[in-house]
Amino acid sequence: MKFTQFLKTRGSIAAIIMGVFYAIAMLGIFLPGYTAIPGNIDKLPIAIVNDDAGEYGAKIAGQLQENLPFKEIKTDVKNKQALKELKKNDLALVVHIPESFSSDMQKGETSSSIDFTINDAGATVVSSSMKSVVAEINNQLSQQFSQQTAQSVLMNFNVPEKQASELAEKIETAYVGNVVTVNKIPDGMHNNMLPMFLTMASYIGAMIGSMQLVEAFKDSRGKASKTRLFIYLQLTALLIAVLSSLAAIGITYLVNQPDGSLFLSMIGHQVLIYMVSFNFTAILIFLLGSAGMILNIPLIFVQTLANGAVISRDMMYKPYEWASHITPMYYSVQGYLADLYGSISPSPFLWSLAAVGLVAMIINIIIVATIHRSKPSHKSLTKTEIEEITKVLS
Predict the structure, then answer these.
(1) Whole-angstrom Cα distance, residue 188 to residue 191?
(2) Which CATH architecture is the domain 40-182 placed in?
(3) pTM
(4) Using one digit for the tens of pLDDT, what is the confidence trace for 197-226?
(5) Which residues contact 325 (CB under 8 A, 6 or more apart)?
(6) Residue 157, pLDDT above cutoff 70
(7) What DSSP line would sit under 42-85, residue for residue?
(8) What tens digit of pLDDT does each residue of 250-264 get?
(9) Strands, E, within the chain: which ranges?
(10) Domain spans of the chain?
(11) Are 311 and 305 in contact (CB under 8 A)?
């Protein structure tokens, strides 16, 4: 056999096509998706809450609104409500100017400072970007107020304005920005990425499981009704979900050491994401057979960006944002962020995840009922029946 003949074989042609297809699929999905960083930072919503009745508060609020690179800046919200929205990741940053800020600055006191509050339990790019933005704001405000406050203090002691301006540069900075981080994630990338890793481990296992169990379903037709086989398929998937979840959470406790009180909720979450992912990926397998895996893999690539672990929905391009609403990974990752590190309930995300799974299962039931025909069952003949047929034929 010549090399050219080998290249023409079915396996070689399939391998060449798949190699090119997945290179295009992966880079075509990942590279455009990640151009949202830092390009779409301006789409993140923030809030500026000015409780200061003095001139400094209004001036700072006006400067921030004018200079910060964000298109959506809320100014008509109370600090308590803004912090509540921040914890839900509906806001990326809350800037709070306290009531006594102007008076404290005029007195040269540092007891009152501007609070910049960031939620760590969210997309990693959002929290890191907000920290960079806050550092830059504090640097500029520090320079501005060190000179203004020093001048004001010296002028009160009848120091000439020109001399006060020169001495101001030598006076210690009067302004100190207060950076507050809520829902702090423990140090280490393994902690930041844990929600995504747990989700992907279950999703990939479920995807492979769906291919194998749907094949077993097809091979078993004729040995039982379609309804019974479909129930068997779901029960087997549930068994795998429980076993794989125990293994996954066991490793998580060995490495990340989360709070022991979270053990049962994490097991339940992991079982749920497996079952939802199983039914979600089984749709294409039921429709296209093993060829459905060709499309299931690009769906993983899309969800890697659309799951909200790295970039938030506000920063995503529309195709990825749409995908986040109808695919399992987003709800699982956000549920884990809330459960492991957040101060809000993961229930809304888990209910949404369950809804995706229910819809996927209903679609699979419809496919099985309408497309997959039952094979006629072949009942084995008894020895007596065989003898009677033999007599008739002879």
Answers:
(1) 6
(2) 3-Layer(aba) Sandwich (3.40)
(3) 0.84
(4) 999 999 999 999 999 999 999 888 888 888
(5) none
(6) no
(7) GGS-EEEEE---SHHHHHHHHHHHHHSS-S-EE-SS-HHHHHHH
(8) 999 999 999 999 999
(9) 46-50, 73-74, 93-97, 115-119, 178-182
(10) 40-182, 189-370
(11) yes
